[in-house]
Prior knowledge:
Structural class: mainly alpha
Shape: globular
Largest sheet: none
Mean pLDDT: 92
Distance between the termini: 30 Å
Low-confidence stretches: none
Number of helices: 5
Amino acid sequence: MKAEGYEQLAAILQDAFDQASTGKGKERHANDKPFHEQPMQQIAKRRGIGFILGQADKKSEEAQGMLERGEIDAFEREILGAIVYLAGSIVFTRNQGKA
């Protein structure tokens, strides 16, 4: 991901990827499964994409409160989690199109 003027975006997207693939996201949610087979995807198959989008919404709402309390690191973690959920919604819709 290299494009002049987009370095900060690339760094944030990398942070979100790292959180999901090696951080707490993997520890809490992966269950030793690849991203496209993790519980987020399985639940969305049963309940619809609103589950994934709702999780992203919940994280962004929680992040706002953290920011208002001055909890900057926690704010960033929640927003990175929301980014991962939003990416998961794209994975879900792409995989549904293949089904």
